[in-house]
Design brief:
The complex is a heterodimer of chains A (122) and B (415). By secondary structure, chain A is α+β, with helices and mostly antiparallel strands. Chain A has one domain. Chain A is 11% helix and 27% strand. In chain A, strands 1-5-6-3 form a 4-stranded antiparallel sheet, with no helix packed on it. In chain A, a hairpin with a 5-residue loop joins strand 5 and strand 6. Chain B has 415 residues and is α+β, with helices and mostly antiparallel strands. In chain B, the strands form 3 sheets. A 6-stranded antiparallel sheet of chain B has the order 1-2-3-4-5-6. Chain B has a 5-stranded antiparallel sheet with strand order 8-9-7-10-11. A 5-stranded mixed barrel of chain B has the order 12-13-14-16-15. In chain B, helix 6 packs across helix 7, helix 6 packs antiparallel against helix 9 and helix 9 packs across helix 10. The radius of gyration of chain B is 25 Å and the shape is globular. The chains are: A alpha+beta (122), B alpha+beta (415). Chains A and B meet through helix 2 of A and strand 1, strand 2 and strand 3 of B.
Amino acid sequence: MTALFADYLPKTNCPPADANESFEVVYHVVKKPDLADCDFRTAVEANLHHDGDPCQRCSISIFTDLSDVSKFLDFFPYMRRRHLAEGYIPPAAGKIKKLPSQYHRIALGGRTKTLTGKATLR
Amino acid sequence: MTAMFNTVTEIGNLTIDEVFGYYDGPRLFSCRSGDGNYYIAIHVDDDGDNEVWLLAPVSTRRLEEVRTGRISLHGAFRLVEGGRVWNLLVSSDARDVLRYDFMSVDSVGDEILPSPNARLALESRVEAVVSTNTIWSAIDSIAQEAIQGGRLPTSIQALKSLRHVVDISLSNVNYPKLPAIHIDALGRSLTRLQSLFDAAGQAFFDRPTARGAVPSRIKDQTRLLAIHPFPGSFGIRLESDNNDLFGSDTLTPVFESVALLFQAGDNEAYLLEVLDKLGPRTAAHYRSLARILASARANFTIEVGVPNRAQSVSATLPYDRLSNLINILERQSEKVVETLTIAGELIGVETDPIKRRVHIKSVEHDINCGVADNCAHKLMGLTIGGIYEATFSVRIDVIDISGEEKVTYKLIDIN
């Protein structure tokens, strides 16, 4: 299956060749228990980080392991006030790539609105 | 490099040097101002519309210590060089800096700082920098400018000699300008400092145990030479006498850790973080040094330079903070103790609450010691001559006058 990616993705190397389609459960930090589109806006959609990596700006950050969320919260305690949305990326709905970081980070390249799930308090 | 915040007049434009933490955008990174100064920036709060960021000014050396995890992020902010951090309120959308303040780090609550567990673990990039001719020529010119009274800064001397260099100075708090110090205080301080480096060396090269003497092969590496006194209150330069067995790069963490110990001062959280790596023996000698300095009413300053580092680490232990430091170290000595478990023959037991003791002997150990209160009930029913598995806490103290180590065992479990 071929993913339907947003039109604004760079034409070359985005998603990167080493990004994978995924069926994994993923977690994304959101501001409120009720999910909203704005929780899944990419930097391009939010008009942020103009000097950042063009492909990375078309992605959102996610976790695949709750223990990595715990490490993340050690770095950014204010995030404890937020919530964690849990869902999965259906086939062809996006790709993920693991990127080096101190806490495990995975960027999702693609049409992120297809990430479905329910925010749960943790 | 990526521009991050719109201009803060006093800092200038900041561009990202290296991103350490990214979550839907850079949230933790090093950055550099137009005049070449480095900062560690972290996003610490937001209300949806605006974000709060803290920026800690850092030397390139401190930045390396944070990158490589030698200093936690918590420590990088809590012990920021100069004691002040930039607090920025930034609009989430346009990255405009709406308000900023150069504030005392004491005003920053722990709840917004990274936890002491949050530590980076990146490869050092110093060697690559130091190997360039440009940096070497810069160091030469700095050295020429920095020579004062014939004494090079420790960092420069370390680069030239490829030895580790330690400058210490002591001044009596009652006579801070007097270029003299009682020789008994000086002598004890020097011997205790040597023991401190020996114990730290054992923690790095062997294991941070309180039992047994520091092996001579380690003491050979951490031995310091007195090079010359220098003007000041009373200053003396020391250099490592290490040979090639470990090499200077191997010895560097020992010297850097001892420097960090002094830099932690009486900041309890940071102090315990450093001592956690250095072990109870190092803590005991540091405790003794602090008592000697307090007894001599001395302010103590130390500067450590190591090969392959462009900057020294310096720290001062003011006399008026020594009392608090000693209290912290005493508390720490009660909490952080080594344990020893042996299987041995019960030679004797005294169950009287006033004189409660056990005597247990194994092939390697012969321990006659007190008993922890919560273990007293286990003494009932023990049989003299029986073989038991016994666990002891091991506490090490140093006798200030002689420098002799005293190890105290206490039975904490027996089965």
